[in-house]
């Protein structure tokens, strides 16, 4: 699909807005009410002087703003990676088609380049912007103008390398988000430790709930952030692998279906 920076920006902005709405709605309606109820029950038991066991509930672990921000960023990056994966899969469908309609044993001469370009020109506009048609079109145009097979091979390699560089540069936003999520977790750690130190005098008096909650913020935020970043890093490498395979398969397609048939008299 034709690369449109404005369209990509608007999609990412919309995805971020939707991600925030979904995650915040879950936190307001489910996570924080349950976490507050559990913490209130613990406080009541402590005030009554009862022995109680502090249970590690998932609602308490994820209740803070840092964890919410991490989940928003995670959902946002899933939307970005999902779109990129869909585009790659759409382009890969062309690899199973015979775009040039070259039969085995056929030789393509420089004067035939225009003829074999016509099937590519009849493709829908969006498919013409895919990597495979662009590479084949560039190779045929180079062959018709230079009548040199080595130049055609160079043209295929140049187009594929340019596409590989473009795909890698477009992963920069995903890399930034993967860096930002642990950073937000560390911010929660600093905030939690600071609050715990501010309530140290209460712990000395026997009221440890405040300190426990603050330390929970410190450790839970980093714990959740690291888990999310590890998972997203795995998905990003899978996406990058998919993109690299597509570029390599495109080069291989051109070698088998075009370069092997070229001939200069």
List keywords for this structure.
rod-shaped, 10 helices, 265 residues, mainly alpha
Please describe what this structure looks like.
The mean pLDDT is 87. The chain has one domain (1-265). 78% of the residues lie in helices and 0% in strands. The longest helix is centred in the last third of the chain and has 49 residues, at 209-257. The radius of gyration is 28 Å and the shape is rod-shaped. With 265 residues, the chain is mostly helical.
Secondary-structure map:
Blueprint: H1 5-47, H2 58-61, H3 65-92, H4 113-121, H5 125-128, H6 131-146, H7 149-169, H8 172-198, H9 200-204, H10 209-257
Whole-number count of domains: 1
Average pLDDT, to the nearest integer?
Answer: 87
Termini separation: 37 Å
Oligomer: single chain
Number of helices: 10
Order of H and E elements: HHHHHHHHHH
Largest sheet: none
Number of strands: 0
Q: Find the structural class using helix and strand composition.
A: mainly alpha
Rg over CA atoms, rounded to whole Å, is 28 Å
Uncertain stretches of 5 or more adjacent residues: none
Helix content: over 70%
Assess the beta-strand content as a share of residues.
under 5%
Shape: rod-shaped
